[in-house]
## 1
Amino acid sequence: MFKRLFGLLAIGLLGGCAANEPELYSRINEAYDFEVTHCDSFAIVTGVGRGDEGVKEAKISAKRQGEALLGTHIVWLHIDNIEDSDQTRVVAIVYKCLV
């Protein structure tokens, strides 16, 4: 009986932890355009997210693309909701700053 109760408790706790994933550290910094005037812009990335967390998901997707390109900074250009859909799209420029 105690084994079954302990097992159910452990599953419940582990399931709760999986639902609230912490946001991982990002290797690319969000910036404003005036902060990266001395840097080289070299890519435009986009991200798409869905639902209530659409903007957050879209930004994470775009930041991951920027990280894969070895960018150091990202400047958001546009955030919009796609018509007749629950999707949100972001567009950003990726920069590489040496300093």
## 2
Amino acid sequence: MLALFTKLGGLLTAFFTLFAQFIARKGVLSVLYIGVYIAITGTFIAGVNGIILSLNRSFPGNVYFQAGIQLVPSNAGQCIGAIAAAHLLLITYNFKQVLLKLKILS
């Protein structure tokens, strides 16, 4: 009976070890994906803010342009950058799905 419990304990230990490794691997990949997404979003936000600032400085004497640019909210760069990053993430996800389908079919 002791040998049975020993064997069962060994199997449970092996199962929980594999399960913990699987969860840890998924956790690392999730953190990696989130980090890449934050980096892409930050890049897009910086780019859009740079474009808005360069437009604002390139038309300093145009009163109509200045009036129009004042209608844009102060967080427009962040919003546009986040939307652009979300679209890029969606395109990447769809591309990954297409590659997985090709891999399954071949």
## 3
Amino acid sequence: MDVQFPVGIGREGADPRIHQGMTHGEVVEGLQSVILDPQYFLHGIIKKTADAGAVQTQRFGFQIQYLATANSVAALRFGATHVNTTVNGLGERAGNAALEEVVMCLHHLHGIETGIDVRQFKAISQLVALASARPVPAGKSIVGDAIFSHESGIHVDGLLKNPRNYQSFDPEELGRQHHLVLGKHSGTKAIMRAYAELGSIITESQAQNILRQIRVYVLQHKVTPPVEDMHRFLLESMESPHVHS
């Protein structure tokens, strides 16, 4: 593609835009479509047209190889003025670049502010999921129910010492919070934290004893123990001969 073609038209007042798709780009606003190599487009066409300042460049990416977010962010870094995104990455086949992922990448990886209220991501994600009848996977980045849930003992211990050990941003930024899941992979630090949140300060030896009970409970019932069972485990740990004062 001759970069000077859209640049020249832009300078003549036609205000062309270059729209780049997953495997091809097309010059819209009355201009002809052209086949482009994606890497060539990002490193060549976008940068050259952005430097020329005469045209706007826009990127639209599919998630067939789960690179839509990365390529959209790269396009913006090379000078693209717009990117097409969808809430939850909703779209045909494997979907499109997700709004929430692109925004958080720009904010935290590249220090680029967008002016978007990220605290609304969870609510709008749920609304779109309901309207489209396409539930959001629990592990979906940014908006999934489970992304701030932690069970592994080593993981929880590191998180309690420094949240940045495992996460690049505070969930409170999104209006959310950490959730410690008690299960067969939990450790004593998670047990002690869970009881502290219930208003009880326990010793590490009590936590070890309660942890054994929790693991048995979870294996039998396949769910985290409810509050009433947590209180029962604590009472039983205080009566246990294995607990030392």
## 4
Amino acid sequence: MQISYNQIEDFLNCKGIAFSIKGNLQSNYKICSLFYPESNGFYFVIGNNLNSKIKKSLILSSTNFEISKDNAMLVINENPQVVYYMITDYYFGEKSTGEVCKTAVIHKNAIIGKNVQIDSYAVLGNCVIGNNTIIKSHSVITDNSCIGQNVIIEPHCTVGATGTAWAMGGDGVKIKQPQLGGVIVKDNCFLGANSTIVRGSLNEKTTIGENTIIAPGARIGHGTQIGKSVHFANNVVTGGNSKINDFCFVGSSVTFRPKVEVHPFTVVGAGAVVVKNTSKENSLLIGVPAKETTSKNNLTGVPSYKRK
């Protein structure tokens, strides 16, 4: 993907982000990652270390450090990672096309908002879909599901899958409880590919709070309550009726025992198995079974949330 310097400058000016320029500017740059450096790229840098392979590139930074003569730098007083993501999302972020594929199957009573994109072979039951939402191919949204606005549901997701709950009868036969609840996915959420959200049992609503990101492969148990601005990395599993409060950050392949609750701002390390409630906010859970410690500030790979 290419971006022009003029586009970057226009965005910064539009958002009122003050900046200064040093070095030799090029007209156009390639959107690049620091983990895959190329010449003539557009990068953000936190700190003052720049890969020597980066040449003829534009660096977005809050630190005014020395660069080679063929590079250029935009120095800002804000978090360069956040501003870089804002720029790239503005110009390249996925937006709904508003198109509904002919092979999609949609219930006659489904309520579909404005500018909703529904891709090939998606199946929608008697549900509600908010404005500007994207539902990708082969995803299933079952009855009694409510999807908010500006949600992205990646391919092969199921929202409202049937869970299992049963009691053992006297003759050793399992007596199943019907799964009668629903699912609420609030605004601005992302559901990664191959994720399954089990609907609530009885009158429960499995709920995912606004601005939450769930990476591919999640399995969300019935009645789970996920707060706002939560992050789930790949392959997270929650047992039924678990509660993950606002602003939690959960690493890859974490498992939550049914009915467990973690406080807001909890960080759960990759691979942990959470079997009991946390005792306070801002905890760090690590290990199998997970042990609770106090979370340090600026953990690697974990965003810093601003508290109101």
